[in-house]
Amino acid sequence: MVLLVLTDRIRTAIYQAVQSPEFDESAKKRLKSYLKASACVPLDLIKEVSKFLLGRDGKLGKEIGLSNYWLHDLLTGSGVYVEPRKEKPKSPELIARLESILAEQANKEYARMIGRVASSYDVETFKLLDTEEFQSVRGQLTAIINITFTVVAVFAAVYHVAQTITGDTGMRVLLAFTGSVIVGVAETILYMRYLTGYDKIEQKERKPRRRSSASSGYHNKAATTTSPRRPGVDVTITPDPPVAKTPEHFTVSGTLEHDITAGKTALDIDFFDGLRFVSIIPPYIKNFTESVKAGTKFSIDVDNVPTPTEFPKFYAIFVSVGENPDKDGKLQDVFGCSRAEFQT
């Protein structure tokens, strides 16, 4: 059965045929059903309507050749009816999965954009590090500038004074150059002797230094700070300070505001480069084997924690308790943490 689009011209013709008592009753019923709930009509019914209306006009004595009810006239502006495709309802599980994938992709893109930018937490760590090395560099630059100005000043002074001895410009330049070289060498020797003696005293009398950024600290000697937004934890490390390529022992204890769940809550130990703002080695993760309720003191011992093969000038140790580690081993939900800075 061929269905055609129901146009106004076809609809008008159908109304005239339906209203006529002489039109076939079965055809009337079929046409009424299409007129009420459809936008199409079968081609055979249109043919019946056209044939009936042309016959009626002929009986009424009208000129059939001028009638508008010929089949080709009725079909003008119509066409084959194609039923619109019904959209299948999307599965709620599929929609939720797609949304989670899009959110994950957005987070990865954001992390990629800010991956090379130091976080506020890293900047805070950098500010807490000892600035003695920077002061030493500044002192060395100051000494170089001073020596340079001294050499230039001596050259100018000798050149000016030499005119009282000789009027030869070449001789004056030679004398000025000789005097500036002598003074420059003397200044450099004195500065190097001072610097070498200072370094020897430092090596003999001072042990490795750590800058304390809070009144409390790791047990033994390492300095520590805690975040004001998270409870702090007490940490004991052995040996203290850590030794490169030597396994470290950690004892972590404290009281948290969150429950510790066995197999889910983890301890994160991260050796962090204080100048490059990156982890020196991958973080060490250990899951708790016993559950502890919030407000109850916990304690955990961790043996054989690997240390870097070499420590940088400034570094820190971050100890965190939390859940949901990311692909880099850093905990996303931190319940408590502590930090200690070291200077080798």
UniProtKB/TrEMBL annotation:
Keyword Calcium included in the entry's annotation: no
Keywords assigned by UniProt, alphabetized: Endoplasmic reticulum, Membrane, Transmembrane, Transmembrane helix
GO annotation, cellular component aspect: endoplasmic reticulum membrane
Principal subcellular localization: endoplasmic reticulum
Region called Disordered, residue ranges: 205-250
Pfam hit, one: Vma12
Biased composition annotated in UniProt, kind: Polar residues: 213-228
Membrane topology according to the record: Multi-pass membrane protein
GO biological process: vacuolar proton-transporting V-type ATPase complex assembly
TM stretches of this protein: 143-162, 174-196
Top-level lineage group: Eukaryota
InterPro entries: ATPase_Vma12
Cellular localisation: Endoplasmic reticulum membrane
Protein name: 1607_t:CDS:1
